[in-house]
Design brief:
The complex is a heterodimer of chains A (461) and B (204).
Chain A (H helix, E strand, L loop, with lengths): L2 H24 L3 H16 L9 H19 L2 H12 L7 H16 L9 H10 L4 H14 L8 H10 L6 H23 L10 H8 L18 H20 L6 E3 L5 E3 L2 H19 L11 H41 L4 H12 L2 H14 L4 H8 L12 H9 L17 H22 L17
Antiparallel strand pairs in A: 1-2
Helix pairs in contact in A: 1-2, 1-13, 2-13, 3-11, 3-12, 3-13, 4-6, 4-11, 5-7, 5-9, 5-11, 6-7, 7-9, 7-17, 7-18, 8-15, 9-18, 11-12, 13-14, 13-15, 13-17, 14-15, 15-16, 16-18
Chain B lengths: L2 H23 L8 E2 L1 H27 L17 H28 L2 E2 L4 H27 L5 H32 L1 H9 L1 H12 L1
Parallel strand pairs in B: 1-2
Helix pairs in contact in B: 2-3, 2-5, 2-6, 2-7, 3-4, 3-5, 4-5, 5-6
Classes of the chains: A mainly alpha (461), B mainly alpha (204).
Chain lengths: 461, 204
């Protein structure tokens, strides 16, 4: 690439960052709208081919939000808040630890963070009812759900790394034996930091402003919540839907088969299953919990979900337009960095994931490079967990949905693009997870990852 | 100290510690050095095996492109004939990058200390360079927009063919190098990564 090409890439990158900044400052659907303007600038101004809008993620948000909003209309969210508050009565702050692990497990079982959408409203409401700063649980859980990808045997990124390390005798079990314990420790460290992060809700100036302005209702203690007659039923249907998704995600033999591209058949992917099951759950809630369809669009969950979807539409489309046209340049630049300074490989993986917003692309391009540079396969697996860097920029659906769900204003997408609520838990989680992973490999996988051979002689040029 | 500053310092410290740990545990560049034949065979087969896995991932991504804006979703997005060609072109670019990584891995493996070691290292290196050239040619062909569906199909078939032949010739080259040097053959036979590569080849 010539210097002019690099300048163009930098300018296009600045356009993307500029419009994300404008979007997060505007807030709400403004993020999506400014993302749309950014796409126009990239396509008409810089003549880039338009990228793909995030169709799958948007459809999942629609389906999940329909079910969650129907449950809310039936009083199910209130019921879950009451139950969760009772369970956490002795230690309400335990939510900051429990919620991330629940999100993590959901991702492990389904191989996608999209299942996390279904519990965002519940985490938010439980936190608010217990006067816990929602940012702590929501941001931590969002990061934990992304961390779950490298711990999931059914995730696309895991399928990508396995063929790369198989030759070094690392199979799926070995990979999970490194990533799962490391992630558990990483999430704990993150939750610990988050449980002390920020002001208490009652002392938060933005929350107090919103409260004084009447923008939000004060938190209602769980004991004062009046339950509706079919609330339990709606929760049972909703949770059955989530459970069904987890079962289909984990046991692909239970899924219907479809024609495979290369001939033969293959199990239907989990994404359309999430959409189908959640729409079905919404319909069953309407039917059995006696909710009128007209009530659903009026619920706060529905409104915030739709705003999140529009925000994701524009911002992810703009990001993909930039990435689809410049992925090679990004990978080449960061690959060169790692070649020059191999000890920077973990940071390079993190940055490739951040700038391409794709765990699979970061895995496919950076893990082989690290192996070629002489880094042991076990250590590369430990550092592969850095693909959670996809959350570095606030352009992912789960981040946008979590920020939108939190009406207290504590969970934000930031003002300067990288200063969002997810940055601190992200940094803590990936650094600790990678370090613990390296320690696990060093302690338990020594024979798999022998130290590089000592040369018998050194050739004098 | 303000929390933001404290967090920033802690994160930077964490990154520095991680970088230091990586520098300590796992990396050694052996390019330009003569290494035991067993270590050389281990590194070369490891690099080839990783490259092969990378190629499989690339082909899978071409068949089922991952979507963006969501995490861990492996669904294809809307497909158009133009989109397909673009995917294959992107796949080939990735293939070229993977092969460059392979060359890097082989260069880092050093030169085996067996009698025909220098020659074997040269053969494998020549193959890697030739593979990269053939893939780049296929990539260049794809740069031109196909005027008809028939031409587009030819381009795609040629691209897939280039990837397949690169894979096949790679396995042959390594087998050839092993045949020419008994000590190297023993090293290849005993290396765990080469054994794994052979098992994978037998099973496919």
């Amino acid at each position: 690439m010539t210097t002019t090409d690099w300048i163009l890439v930098a300018l296009e990158g600045l356009v993307v960052i500029g419009f994300i900044a404008l979007g997060v400052r505007t807030g709400g659907i403004g993020l999506g709208l400014w993302g749309g303007v950014g796409t126009v600038v990239l396509v008409f101004g810089f003549h880039l081919e338009p990228g793909e809008p995030p169709t799958s993620a948007m459809l999942i948000i629609i389906a999940v939000i329909s079910a969650a909003a129907a449950m809310q209309a039936a009083g199910g969210v209130d019921y879950m808040v009451v139950i969760a508050s009772r369970a956490l009565r002795a230690q309400p702050r335990a939510l900051n630890f429990v919620a991330p692990y629940v999100s993590y497990v959901l991702t492990i079982l389904t191989g996608t963070s999209n299942t996390f959408f279904s519990i965002i409203p519940v985490i938010n409401e439980v936190a608010y009812a217990n006067k816990i700063r929602p940012e702590r649980a929501l941001a931590g859980s969002t990061v934990a759900s992304a961390v779950g990808i490298t711990s999931s045997p059914v995730a696309a990124a895991t399928a990508t790394i396995l063929p790369l390390v198989e030759v070094y005798h690392y199979d799926l079990i070995d990979v999970l034996l490194i990533t799962i314990p490391a992630s558990i420790v990483g999430i704990f460290a993150m939750s610990l930091v988050m449980s002390r992060h920020g002001k208490e809700l009652d002392d938060d100036p933005e929350f107090q402003r919103r409260l004084a302005a009447g923008e939000i209702e004060p938190p209602a203690p769980a004991a004062e919540i009046e339950l509706q007659p079919y609330a339990k039923r709606s929760v049972a249907i909703f949770l059955a839907g989530v459970l069904a998704i987890c079962i289909f995600g984990f046991f692909d033999g239970l899924r219907p088969t479809v024609a495979a591209e290369g001939g033969g058949t293959e199990p239907l992917s989990i994404t359309p299953i999430i959409q189908m099951v959640m729409l079905t759950a919404a319909a069953l809630i309407l039917l059995f919990a006696h909710v009128r369809a007209t009530e659903v669009p009026g619920t706060p969950i529905f409104k915030s979900g739709m705003v999140a979807m529009i925000a994701l539409f524009g911002i992810a489309w703009m990001a993909d337009t930039f990435i689809a046209n410049n992925e090679d340049a990004i990978v080449q630049a960061l690959g060169s960095l790692a070649e020059k300074w191999p000890f920077m490989i973990a940071i390079a993986i993190f940055l490739v994931a951040a700038l391409t917003t794709s765990q699979s692309a970061a895995t496919r391009t950076m893990v082989p490079l690290g192996l070629a540079l002489g880094i042991g396969a076990g250590y590369m697996i430990a550092m592969w967990t850095a693909v959670v860097g996809v959350l570095f920029l606030p352009a992912n659906g789960t981040q946008i949905a979590a920020a939108e769900a939190d009406k207290t204003g504590t969970t934000t997408l930031g003002k300067r693009v990288v200063d969002h609520s997810f940055q601190l838990p992200l940094q803590v989680a990936w650094i600790v997870t990678a370090l613990v992973g390296i320690a696990i490999v060093w302690l338990f996988f020594g024979s798999h990852t022998p130290a590089p051979a000592v040369p018998s002689t050194t050739t004098v040029p | 100290m303000r929390p933001l500053l404290a967090y920033t310092i802690a994160i930077v410290a964490g990154v520095v510690v991680l970088t230091a740990v990586v520098a300590l545990v796992g990396y050694r560049d052996k390019s330009g050095e003569t290494v035991p034949a067993s270590a050389w065979a281990q590194s070369v087969c490891g690099a080839v095996g990783t490259w092969r896995g990378e190629m499989e991932a690339i082909v899978r991504d071409v068949r089922n492109p991952p979507s963006r804006g969501s995490l861990g979703v492996e669904e294809p997005q809307s497909e158009t004939p133009q989109g397909r060609t673009e995917l294959v072109r992107t796949g080939l670019e990735s293939g070229v990058r993977a092969t460059k990584t392979l060359v890097e891995g082989i260069e880092n493996a050093g030169t085996p200390d067996s009698p025909q070691g220098g020659q074997a290292a040269g053969q494998v290196s020549d193959w890697a360079t030739a593979s990269r050239d053939s893939l780049e040619k296929a990539q260049d062909a794809l740069q031109h927009e196909a005027p008809t569906l028939e031409t587009a199909l030819k381009q795609l078939t040629g691209a897939v063919g280039a990837m397949t032949s690169t894979l096949t010739s790679g396995v042959k080259t390594i087998a050839g190098a092993a045949t020419a040097d008994p000590q190297l053959a023993a090293a290849f036979r005993n290396s765990s990564t080469c054994q794994q590569l052979r098992e994978e080849q037998t099973s496919t």
